[in-house]
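Training component of the fellowship. As part of building independent skills, the fellow (R.M.) carried out the full modelling exercise for a liganded target. The chosen ligand was zinc ion. The inputs are recorded below so that the supervisory panel can assess the work.
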Amino acid sequence: MNTKVRQESEAGLRRQIHAKIATIAKTGICMPGTLVRKSRKCGNPRCACANGGPLHPACTVTSKDCGRTKAVYIPVDMIPEVETWVANHKRVKELLKEIGVLAERLIRLHVPRRLAARRRSGSLESGTAET
Ligand SMILES: [Zn+2]
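Fellow's submitted model of the complex:
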């Protein structure tokens, strides 16, 4: 029956959503931002870096905080770990987006076709952009 098919795909969508939630739950520490590698002078006037020698590797994670760009300095020994945190955050963000898409499909599946068609034409009428 039609209803059964719909219920099955709804269940399928819910399963997919919960699989993604489980993946998020298993993810480690997350940190928003972009890891930026650069080199810098350490400030010691007697260091080689102050006299044309090689600079010291430095790393920051930059992110937007209320529209302002914020940079957090990452100690060298923490760089590999923080790199994972940044990657985790990116992955979680992707998963949340995917969950949102699936949730929308789940809702659409729930709305009877006629209602959906009426809503679509309604949204066309209320649309402001005319091309
Ligand atoms: Zn130095």
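The panel noted the following from the submitted structure. The chain is about 55% helix and 20% strand. Strands lie at 34-40, 56-65, 68-74.
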